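Inverse folding, one chain.
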């Protein structure tokens, strides 16, 4: 008959269970990361139309562009300020293309103004900030009027806030469920060791000596499970990016690596604490209570 070793309990079953739990929480974490990136992209596409005074010189137009680009609330992509100039001639062509009506034919003149279209940074896209930005831009010399679709912006911000609250609520519930699942898995695995723990107590082993192999094993199982869960998530992401190329726009490697590191830490900490609680429980039980 094979002799039982202290801290030796079903390894594969525990690692599989913890890996599955961490994979689920990692999957939801990826959903939150991509949802956050999508929210950021939507907010960065918020535009303000800055209509200019008539008959501005080229020098004045260039100076205005530099002034706009220097503002802290302007969105940047690839180190380029998202400031786009639309001349009144281009505006007339767009209007003709959209409506099919050439108003210059009966007006005899182009009543549109030159304009700059500004993309606002996601961090400054709340409704109060946009109102302040509008006032700030209208104070700049050469600016005639600033417009943006206020009702649409409020609707976008409201929906993003509502979705974020719902996702965070689900994430909180999921974390609690995963902690309970891992805790119960380790408790069940340690159940088979309860008599061995009592035997060690009876021969005079200290609590620390008895707990140490269980805690070390549980911590390594948590780390191993985190590594396997992270590898599975990475493989799933690469497959998703290959199959749906548009998802690459929502990719955030830095946050993804932080998530994977968090899975290792969560697995290690929960495994350690769950094992500590379970062993302490069996150390305190009387012989009759072990049956």
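Residues assigned per position:
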């Amino acid at each position: 008959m094979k002799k039982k070793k202290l801290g030796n309990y079903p390894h594969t079953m525990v690692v599989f269970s913890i890996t599955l739990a961490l994979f689920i929480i990692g999957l939801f974490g990826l959903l939150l990361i991509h949802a956050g990136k999508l929210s950021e992209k939507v907010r960065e596409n918020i535009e303000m139309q800055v209509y200019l005074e008539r008959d501005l010189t080229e020098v004045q137009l260039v100076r205005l562009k530099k002034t706009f680009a220097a503002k802290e609330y302007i969105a940047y992509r690839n180190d380029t300020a998202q400031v786009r100039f639309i001349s009144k001639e281009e505006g007339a062509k767009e209007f003709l293309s959209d409506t099919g009506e050439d108003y210059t034919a009966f007006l005899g003149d182009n009543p549109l103004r030159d304009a700059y279209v500004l993309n606002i940074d996601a961090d400054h896209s709340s409704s109060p900030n946009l109102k302040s930005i509008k006032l700030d831009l209208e104070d700049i010399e050469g600016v005639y009027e600033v417009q943006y679709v206020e009702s649409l912006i409020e609707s976008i911000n409201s929906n993003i806030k509502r979705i974020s609250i719902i996702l965070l609520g689900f994430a909180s519930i999921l974390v609690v469920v995963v902690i309970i699942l891992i805790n119960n898995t380790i408790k069940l695995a340690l159940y088979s060791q309860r008599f061995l723990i009592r035997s060690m107590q009876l021969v005079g082993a200290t609590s620390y000596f008895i707990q140490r192999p269980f805690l070390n094993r549980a911590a390594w199982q948590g780390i191993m499970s985190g590594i396997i869960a992270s590898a599975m998530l990475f493989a799933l992401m690469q497959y998703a990016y290959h199959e749906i190329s548009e998802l690459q726009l929502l990719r955030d490697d830095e946050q993804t690596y932080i998530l994977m590191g968090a899975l290792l830490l969560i697995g290690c900490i929960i495994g350690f604490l769950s094992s500590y609680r379970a062993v302490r429980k069996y150390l305190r039980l009387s012989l009759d209570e072990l049956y």
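The chain has nine helices and six strands. Residues 150-191 form the longest helix (42 residues).
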